[in-house]
Amino acid sequence: MRSPRRGWCRRAADYKRSAVKAGVAAKFVGDRNIDTQGKAVAGSFTLLSGYVGADLEEVSEQLKGVSFTVQGTNLTDERYLAGGDGGSAFLGTARTVTASLTLDF
What we know:
Layout: E1 8-17, E2 20-29, E3 32-33, E4 41-42, E5 45-55, E6 66-73, E7 81-85, E8 88-91, E9 96-103
Antiparallel strand pairs: 1-2, 2-5, 3-4, 5-6, 6-9, 7-8
């Protein structure tokens, strides 16, 4: 199998100040072969992800250890081939947004 024409790269930044936390990440994946002969090539893609949240203890002492976060992946809803195996190709995951409420005790 031949190597991809271009590799991959990931960049990320995080921010936290007082109760607020946030971050963003971008991942680039270059053209890559998806068959054993090196003839079928999946095109490059870039994914953007991010999160924003708060440590609620800063809002009220009664909320000590509680945090809330909203996270999103593939925010631009990029359509891409995630990979291939045995004659099958797999679509990448569509935009996904989740929320979490965490209690540390």
